[in-house]
Amino acid sequence: MDAGRIAQLLQPFAPPLTSAQFENISTYIDILLRWNARVNLTAVREPEAIVTRHFGESLFAAARLFPAGSELSAQPHVVDVGSGAGFPGLPIKIWAPPIHLTLIESNQKKATFLREVARRLTLTDVDVVAARAEDFPPAAGDVVTLRAVERFDRALPVAVRLARVGGRVAGLVGRSQVERARELAAAVRWEDPVAIPQSSSRVLLIGTWG
Length: 210
Prior knowledge:
By secondary structure, the chain is an alpha/beta fold. The protein has helices spanning 3-10, 19-36, 47-65, 89-95, 108-120, 152-162, 178-184, and strands spanning 77-81, 100-104, 126-129, 141-147, 163-174, 188-190, 194-195, 202-209. 40% of the residues are buried.
């Protein structure tokens, strides 16, 4: 897809990206469409919808977790639970290249896809773990993300367990899940949910653990 059109579609979600970032997104879309023909990575198959639904939502989170112009004093470790087709983890890495990213995806074919995207985009400090998040060491992440996961009631406590004390948990969730998140992880200091552009039901929910 043309970088200019990608920029236009992403405008509501995040500050402008660089030409290299737009090129990475374009390449990512090409790989995703090709793989999706044989591996069920996403039900969203129209390129412009992929940009807004997947990249837009992921970059919306990225821009709030790592605001443009902010200096990263250390290399934050971002752990993405149930990565699937790589959202929001890989777009966060595209947005904030200095982070160390771990993608946890138990499906072997999807894990292979994630490795292929990281290789093609020449992203460094990206680990793909083909395992269940429940088996990952606790307190591993400065930021732990999850999006569109199955079995939310089980996934959220696992995500919280993976965050270090003082770390953040960021969920791209349905508005109806906000109160459930507060019940499941009462020890997390949850911020007010932020509505995702172009969605009536999706929000970004960020909290600090411990």
